[in-house]
Write a structure and sequence with these properties.
Helices cover about 45% and strands about 10% of the residues. The chain is mainly alpha-helical. It has a two-stranded antiparallel sheet.
Length: about 100
């Protein structure tokens, strides 16, 4: 492929891997544990995406920032809405509860 298409290939990212061992566009995969289902995977949010969301929310919810409370709440809602729309098909209910509790403190 390298010579025929004249493309550079990243050896770290390329290859045949099990779905558990890679993320793509912020999405990851975990195996589902249901009786009788083998090699089934569930879509989840990648760890880097969670860290990035927490960092954005942390910066917006900082009390020392010179921003009005209404503007701060509007920006946090905007971040959450966009993030939830992007990761709509994933299983994230438990982690969202944790983030909600973390924001309310």
């Amino acid at each position: 492929m390298k010579t025929k298409l004249k493309l550079t290939i990243n050896e770290e990212k390329s290859g045949i891997k099990r779905p558990v061992h890679f993320t793509i566009l912020g999405f990851g995969f975990v195996p589902t544990y249901k009786k009788g289902s083998k090699n089934d995977y569930q879509l989840v949010v990648g760890e880097k995406a969670w860290k990035k969301l927490k960092e954005k929310l942390k910066n917006m919810s900082r009390k020392t920032a010179p921003v009005k409370l209404e503007d701060r709440i509007a920006k946090i809602n905007e971040i959450q809405r966009g993030w939830l729309n992007y990761f709509r098909g994933t299983s994230i209910t438990g982690k969202l509860r944790d983030i909600d509790g973390w924001l309310r403190i």
